[in-house]
Amino acid sequence: MPRIDAEREDVTLSRAKESHRRHRLREIMVMSRRRRPRICAVGALVSAALLTGCSGGHSSSGASGARATAGIARLQVTRAGYEVPARLGAAAPGALAAVVDAESQAHRLGAARAWQMLYHSTGLTGHDIVVSALALVPHGSQPAQGWPIVAWAHGTTGVAGQCAPSIAPDLGHDQTALREVSALLARNWVVVASDYPGLGTPGVHTYLIGQADARAVIDGVTAAHQLLGRRVSGSWITVGHSEGGQTALFVAQAADQRAPQWKFLGTVALAPASTLDALIPFAEATHDPVEQAYLIYALEGLSTVDAHLHVEQLLTPQARPLVADTTKGCIDDIVKLLTGLHLDHLLNADTATIAHLSEELGRYDNPDQMRAAEPVLIAQGTADRDVPAGATDALASRLCRLGDQLEYRHYPGLDHNNLIAGSLSFVGAWITTRFAHHTTPTTCNPKT
What we know:
Blueprint: H1 21-26, H2 48-51, H3 59-69, E1 73-74, E2 76-78, E3 81-83, E4 96-101, H4 103-109, E5 113-122, E6 128-137, E7 147-153, H5 175-186, E8 190-194, H6 210-228, E9 232-241, H7 243-258, E10 263-270, H8 279-286, H9 289-302, H10 311-314, H11 321-325, H12 331-341, H13 351-365, E11 376-381, H14 389-402, E12 406-411, H15 418-435
Parallel strand pairs: 1-4, 7-8, 7-9, 9-10, 10-11, 11-12
Antiparallel strand pairs: 2-3, 4-5, 5-6, 6-8
């Protein structure tokens, strides 16, 4: 996320066409900077017999999962991503397309079993696509009604295929993400981590396109049900940090309608991204390589919904080669390249074009668009320089006005990444409350 502090809040954007952009700029947040993933190719293959051997539960449940995956293709993993099975036809959202055992990820994350899987989803135009994900089963005993599911929405890793968290042993992040997922498993919950469209699979990654990424997360839960059968219950919750927090808030708006067969119970968003309509003027004013990398990614994501948008044509001659570089490296690689270039500006576009792009970024990326049907928890560190507390304060106020049952908590002295560990105990308790179908408090003022 952009690092905004009191000294930088006085930046005046002389090129901004409208005076209110200065106010919106103070609310901006984009994805947190992450370490690039270490890639591993997994060669083990899943079979129906493997599913019956999952830790815990009854053999009848294992047989149910085995029958559901009978005839599913063996997923092939490469350093550049996944190979989509040949002659793969369209199917219902969440239908499995291919599966492979992921023993190394299970060991690293503290899971009893793990699978990398391809499943069907739909793009925003309604066409069939395949998305990849990692499904993780805990060591604990299987509850009588099956394990509840936590859909983990990841933060920024990059837009190249090899940046997919389900491929990288470290989920494409650092130890904070590993500890978070391990802690969720330790509470005896199944974790399903979608890569989002175009990350590890064919096509351009739908970076920050909230509805598209939310569909992938929701359909990943459906795919997990086909994979595990009665080993999982119908109850589920989504959790995300930074970009993943933004995605989780979009999930909150769509889960009940897209997958009514499952019981969606709530959303946890840690330092969620918002106010992306102010990203362009901010990145152009600060010349910060991190924000510049996010801007390139955001434009690439926007190109998946705007056929007239060609990223190279929007960039200066010095910045254009970076578009090709984004297909080869992950976030740290691109930031390093930008640091060496010392670019004063990325965009070679007139004021009207920038205004149009900003409007589209707000329309497709900002998560405060409609009311969430189930309770929402937002956590924010007061020392966060990537997602400033003031920006999340403003987001929380807008969500309250939409009618969300929102609980908003500040964590004094915690920065962007430390928030994950610092809030983990409360987050776990909040999720436990929702899985028990108990109500959670709201901090929204009725008069807001």
